[in-house]
Amino acid sequence: MIAPSILAADFARLADEIAAVAVGGETRADWVHVDVMDAHFVPNLTLGLPVAKALIDSTDLPIDCHLMIEDPDRWAIGYAEAGAYNVTVHAEAAKDPVTLAKNLRAAGAKAGLSIKPGTPLEPWVDALKHYDTLLVMSVEPGFGGQSFIPDVLEKVRTARRLVDTGHLKLIVEIDGGINTDTIEQAAEAGVDCFVAGSAVYGAAEPGKAVAALREQAARGRAG
Ligand SMILES: O=C(CO)[C@H](O)[C@H](O)COP(=O)(O)O
Ligand SMILES: [Fe+2]
Question: Was 145 annotated as part of a binding site?
Fold first, then answer.
């Protein structure tokens, strides 16, 4: 699955930018990734619930909200109630990740847990039994356009094994520095869903970039 990140899109035309990856066929994205940053958990500030809700209402594509915020135990539920398809919170910020996941699911969303590049996977495996998505960050969260950190693929391999052996039942998602040069190794390691900001919205035709990424990922999965 390919999830274009609107972090790299034109913020004055967000609904149009989403529509550009919503046309049918190979150029259609699977999810649209919306990065929420609060200038506390990360040093950057993007958008919040009112804008996220407007984007959810603007499209039939599933919206994947990546909350890089403090106190997600309090704030994440609003994104689920607004109709986000998947709401991902950071393990480093959540106080009670199990209750949080239950609340997100009860509000009708899929629940996602994200770990920064330096955060190990093992301490979160039990909590992940309550989650639908694991978002492995392959850059330090906060900014688009950074270089992919290949070391995180070890965590992807571990997560893939846990899913394939039935210990976890979730989608393995990766975020940061994904492009046609890096997607193949991520696919080979076992990623199911690839977030791509610059690689999609930095391209002349975002839809064609989605198709190219999907094709390259399929090569990694096959090889
Ligand atoms: O969560 C993020 C940054 O914190 C973004 O989703 C991510 O960086 C996407 O941008 P790019 O593909 O350009 O790296
Ligand atoms: Fe993100």
Answer: yes
Per the CB < 8 A criterion, the answer to whether 200 and 4 are in contact is yes
Q: Give the angle subtended at the CA of 166 by the CAs of 160 and 167, to the nearest 5°.
A: 80
pLDDT tens profile 96-141: 999 999 999 999 999 999 999 999 999 999 999 999 999 999 999 9
Beta-carbon contacts of residue 213 (< 8 Å; ≥ 6 apart): 2, 178, 179, 180, 183, 194, 196, 199, 200
Please provide the DSSP assignment of 152-183 as one string: GHHHHHHHHHHHHTTS---EEEEESS-STTTH
Q: Is 71 designated active site?
A: no
The token pair that represents 151 in the structure block: 């070391």
In tens, the pLDDT along 30-56 reads 999 999 999 999 999 999 999 999 999
CB atoms inside a 10 Å sphere around CB 75: 16
What is the CATH architecture of 2-222? Answer: Alpha-Beta Barrel (3.20)
Any ligand 1 atom below 6 A from CB of 4: no
Which ligand 1 atom lies nearest to the CA of residue 198? Answer: 13
DSSP letter, residue 204: S
Q: Where are the domains of the chain?
A: 2-222
Dihedrals phi, psi of 215, to nearest 5 degrees? -65, -45
